[in-house]
Amino acid sequence: AAAVVLATGGGGQVFAHTTNPTVSTGDGIALAWRAGALIRDPEFFQFHPTALTVAGMPRFLITEVVRGEGAHVVDSQGRRFTFDYHPDGELAPRDVVSRAIFSHLQKTKPDPYCVYLDLRLITPQRMRDRFPSIIQACQQWGVDLFTQPIPIAPVAHYWMGGVATNLETCTSIGGLYAIGETASTGVHGANRLASNSLLECIVFATQLSQLKINSQVRASEEPGYKQEQQDWSNEMEKINFIRQNVPQLMWQSAGISRSQAILEDAIAQLNIWYSQLADLDVSQYVLKATPNQTLQLNSEQAQQNLRLAAETINLTNIASLILKSAAWRRESRGGHYRSDYPQTSADWQLHTLIEGDSWRQSAKIAN
């Protein structure tokens, strides 16, 4: 093809708790990394502090506008504990409020494992006028926010890192373009401001639409064709185990608060799992596929199993990028917080750049 555009969204499914849909498995970023494209700043992941948390239900984001209207973050005793961590309390920046809630949960270990967002200081009519979708979502999961606080906890929400692009959406590979959360355009820095991702999509989609693509594509090899009879069912137990455990590992080791020893342990465990994946027969169709290869599968089950294998491999790839970058950047900045390096360092006012297994720093960024 003369041009390939990666627009696969983010990778929030790499964490056990996320607002991202099930398809957000970092596919575009993993594909680009395996192809040798430049990846930038994967350690910067934004965690939203207030998501509706009901056991067995998908996480639903409760916008910070609610807190701006006067809602309070409280614990099970009704105490506004966020002021213990920042003078602005629940109105502090997202990453600060997320860490405050995470730290409080780690200390108090409540059952259920959540804190609460109390909207009852806002008049009922004001709530109906401003937050109809939140009211509806809470009612759907059995929470009446007019009479009780909303159970909440922090969740992975937005990935600032991704495939490095210039202002025309071009990656480091000719003919390969990236847009949206897949891309690292640089406009979000280390900590995206609310709603800026929508503006980014509008602006960079316009940039992409104005590109002049070289239509003279080099002659490619003859297309290959293979008919595959097996559905790899015998390999699914291992794949399902890794798919379920990678997000748990990432939440505990590279979530809201990180430290060197825990990151290194997680990297070691992830390497074991990836080696196990790479040895599976089904993985060869993901890791050794060629651009002109056509694979004919014999059943719907085979299609589902191949997709699960691909997504699991992609998740382990992006998990590795996040873990290694988080261990490499020995400071705290934006969406990346190190409990062992809690301060921001001027020496790290730069981008993390990755090509293959090589990590390097960009030139320092001027204020």
Run of helices and strands: EHEEEHEHEHHEEEEHEHHHEHEE
What would you give as the CATH superfamily of the largest domain? Fumarate reductase/succinate dehydrogenase flavoprotein-like, C-terminal domain
CATH architecture of the largest domain: Up-down Bundle
What is the tally of helical segments? Answer: 10
Roughly how many Å apart are the termini? Answer: 40 Å
Structural class: alpha+beta
> What is the beta-strand fraction?
15-25%
Give the biggest beta sheet.
5 strands, mixed
Tally of structural domains: 3
**C-alpha Rg (nearest Å):** 22 Å
Helix content: 25-40%
Characterize the quaternary organization of these chains: single chain
Shape: globular
Low-pLDDT windows of residues? none
Q: Strand order within the widest sheet?
A: 10-8-2-13-14
What's the level 1 CATH class of the largest domain? Mainly Alpha
| Number of distinct beta strands | 14
| Integer average pLDDT | 92
Within the CATH hierarchy, at the fold level, what is the topology of the largest domain? Answer: Methane Monooxygenase Hydroxylase, Chain G, domain 1
